[in-house]
C-alpha cells in the first residue's frame, strides 16, 4: 500500500507534469484526458479505494478527496474522470464475488481497467436512485434495456456500473439492482459526443442499452439491495470525488488571484493591486471561504472513514457547501483579476465553466439539502 504522503506526492507530480500542460487542450477540444488517466492508473492508483485484500491501495474517502483536489487544481476533467472511475471501483469492491474480483478488480488494481458509474437517466433526472432501465432475468443471465445519461468517461471506460429496476410490472419502485456491463457489449449504442459548457474532457455521453445481455454473476450484491449501496458506497465516494474536485478549482482560483494582485501594476499611481485595501480585504474573505469549506470536506471524509454514525450528513452538507463556495469564489476571482480573466483561454474562464456543474451533479445541492433536513428530522431520505 502506498502511504498517504506517497499517493499525494505521486498525484502532485502527475497533476503538474501531465494534467496541467494538457488542461487547455482537454478543455478546448472536449478531449478525454487520456494521458493523465492512463498515468494515474499506470502508477498504481487505479485501485486507490479498493481494499488491500483485493490487491488495491486500501485508501478511503479522505485520500480520494485529496487526490481529486490535487488533480482538480490543474484539470477538473481529469479529477472527475479519475473520481468516477474510483467511485465505480468502490462499488464493485464493496461486496465482490470471486468472478467479479477476477474479471474486474484484478485489472482495476493493476491499472488496466477503467470503470465508471452509470446511474442517471433522462426520465428521473436528479433522482439518480430511481432508474427506469429494466433488468430482465433470462436464461443466459440478465437482459438490460434503457438509456443512461451523462456517463462520465463514456466510451473510454472498460466497464460500467449500471443501475436497473426489475422488469416485472409489480417490482417496487426504487428497489433497483446494479450490474457491471463490459464495454462493447452487443446492444450498446452511444449518444453524441459530450459538449459541455465546462468539464469538457469528461466524455459524459448518453448510452442506450438495447437487450444488452450480461451473465448473472455480473450482479453486484443481491437483487434489489441497492439502497444499501447508495448510502454506504455510492453517495460517500461520489460526494467526496466531486467535493475534492471543486476544492481543487477553488485553490486554483485563489492562487490565480494572489499571483495577479502582486503582478498587476497601475502606472498612474505606481502601485500594484496587492496594495489596494479593498482587494486585500476581498482576498482575506476568499481565503476564509476556501479554508472553512476545505476543513468541512476533510472533516466529513475523515468522519466517514472512521465509521461515525452521522458522517453521511456531514458528507452531504460538505458537497452542498462546496458547490456554493466554488461558484462564488471563482466568480469573485474573476472580478478581482478583471478583464484579462474574461478572455477566451484564461484559466478563470475555464474554472468558472467547470465550477458551474457543481450544483447540477448528483446528488444536486437542492436535493442534498432536502436530505439533510430529513435526516435531522428523522424522516426517510428517499420520500419521493
Ligand atoms: C458534468 C457532469 C457529469 C456527470 N457525470 C455523471 C456520471 O458519471 N454518472 C451519472 O450517473 N450521472 C452523471 N451526471 C448526471 C448528474 O449527476 C445528474 O443526475 C444530472 O445532471 C441531473 O439531471 P437533470 O438536470 O435532468 O435533473 P432534473 O431532475 O431535471 O433536475 C433539475 C433541477 O431541479 C432540481 N430538482 C429536481 N427534483 C427536485 C426535488 N424533488 N427537490 C428539489 N430539487 C429538485 C435538481 O436539483 C436540479 O437542480 C453528470 C452530470 C454532469 C453535468
Low-confidence stretches: none
Q: What general outline do the C-alpha atoms trace?
A: globular
The number of domains is 3
Number of distinct beta strands? 10
Cα end-to-end separation: 42 Å
Major sheet details: 8 strands, mixed
Predict the CATH topology of the largest domain: Butyryl-CoA Dehydrogenase, subunit A, domain 3
What fraction, in percent, of the residue positions are helical? 40-55%
What keywords describe this structure?
8-stranded mixed β-sheet; globular; Butyryl-CoA Dehydrogenase, subunit A, domain 3; 51% helix; 384 residues; 10 helices; 3 domains; binds flavin-adenine dinucleotide; Butyryl-CoA Dehydrogenase, subunit A, domain 2; alpha+beta; Butyryl-Coa Dehydrogenase, subunit A, domain 1; single chain; two-stranded antiparallel sheet
Describe, in plain words, how this protein is organized in 3D:
The protein has helices at 4-28, 34-45, 61-74, 76-93, 98-109, 226-263, 277-305, 311-337, 347-355, 365-376; strands spanning 115-118, 134-138, 141-151, 159-166, 176-182, 188-190, 205-214, 219-220, 265-266, 271-272. It is an alpha+beta fold and 384 residues long. Strands 1, 2, 3, 4, 5, 6, 7 and 8 form an eight-stranded mixed β-sheet that branches. Strands 9-10 form a two-stranded antiparallel sheet. The protein starts with a helix and ends in an 8-residue tail after the last helix. The radius of gyration is 21 Å and the shape is globular. The chain has three domains: 4-114, Acyl-CoA dehydrogenase/oxidase, N-terminal domain (Butyryl-Coa Dehydrogenase, subunit A, domain 1); 117-222, Butyryl-CoA Dehydrogenase, subunit A, domain 2 (Beta Barrel), CATH 2.40.110.10; 227-376, Butyryl-CoA Dehydrogenase, subunit A, domain 3, CATH 1.20.140. The model has no long low-confidence stretch (mean pLDDT 95). Bound molecules: flavin-adenine dinucleotide. Flavin-adenine dinucleotide (FAD) is lined by residues 84, 116-120, 125-126, 128, 150-152, 196, 199, 202, 204, 357, 360-362, 364, 366-367, 370, 384.
Amino acid at each position: 500500500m502506498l502511504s498517504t504522503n506517497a499517493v499525494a506526492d505521486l498525484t502532485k507530480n502527475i497533476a503538474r507534469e501531465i494534467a496541467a500542460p494538457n488542461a487547455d487542450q482537454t478543455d478546448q477540444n472536449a478531449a478525454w484526458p487520456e494521458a493523465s488517466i492512463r498515468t494515474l492508473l499506470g502508477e498504481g492508483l487505479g485501485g486507490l479505494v479498493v481494499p488491500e485484500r483485493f490487491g488495491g491501495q486500501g485508501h478511503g474517502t479522505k485520500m480520494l478527496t485529496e487526490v481529486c483536489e490535487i488533480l482538480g487544481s490543474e484539470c477538473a476533467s481529469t479529477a472527475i474522470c479519475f473520481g468516477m472511475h474510483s467511485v465505480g471501483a468502490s462499488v464493485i469492491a464493496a461486496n465482490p464475488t470471486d468472478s467479479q474480483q477476477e474479471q474486474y478488480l484484478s485489472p482495476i488494481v493493476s491499472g488496466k481497467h477503467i470503470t465508471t458509474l452509470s446511474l442517471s437517466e433522462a426520465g428521473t433526472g436528479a433522482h439518480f436512485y430511481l432508474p427506469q432501465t429494466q433488468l430482465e432475468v433470462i436464461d443466459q443471465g440478465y437482459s438490460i434495456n434503457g438509456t443512461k445519461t451523462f456517463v462520465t468517461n463514456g466510451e473510454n471506460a472498460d466497464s460500467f456500473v449500471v443501475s436497473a429496476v426489475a422488469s416485472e410490472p409489480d417490482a417496487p419502485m426504487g428497489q433497483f439492482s446494479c450490474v457491471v456491463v463490459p464495454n462493447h457489449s452487443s446492444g450498446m449504442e452511444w449518444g453524441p459526443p459530450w459538449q459541455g459548457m465546462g468539464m469538457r474532457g469528461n466524455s459524459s455521453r448518453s448510452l442506450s442499452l438495447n437487450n444488452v445481455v450480461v451473465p448473472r454473476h455480473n450482479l453486484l450484491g443481491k437483487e434489489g439491495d441497492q439502497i444499501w449501496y447508495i448510502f454506504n458506497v455510492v453517495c460517500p465516494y461520489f460526494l467526496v470525488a466531486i467535493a475534492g474536485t471543486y476544492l481543487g478549482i477553488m485553490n486554483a482560483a485563489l492562487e490565480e488571484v494572489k499571483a495577479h494582485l502582486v503582478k498587476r501594476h497601475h502606472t498612474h499611481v505606481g502601485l500594484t493591486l496587492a496594495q489596494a485595501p479593498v482587494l486585500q480585504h476581498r482576498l482575506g474573505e476568499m481565503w476564509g471561504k476556501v479554508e472553512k469549506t476545505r476543513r468541512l470536506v476533510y472533516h466529513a471524509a475523515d468522519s466517514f472513514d472512521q465509521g461515525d454514525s452521522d458522517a453521511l450528513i456531514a458528507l452531504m452538507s460538505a458537497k452542498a457547501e462546496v458547490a456554493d463556495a466554488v461558484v462564488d469564489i471563482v466568480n469573485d476571482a474573476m472580478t478581482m483579476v478583471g478583464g484579462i480573466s474574461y478572455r477566451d483561454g484564461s484559466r478563470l474562464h475555464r474554472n468558472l465553466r467547470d465550477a458551474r456543474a457543481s450544483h447540477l451533479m448528483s446528488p444536486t445541492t437542492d436535493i442534498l439539502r432536502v436530505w439533510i433536513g430529513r435526516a435531522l428530522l428523522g424522516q426517510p431520505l428517499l420520500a419521493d
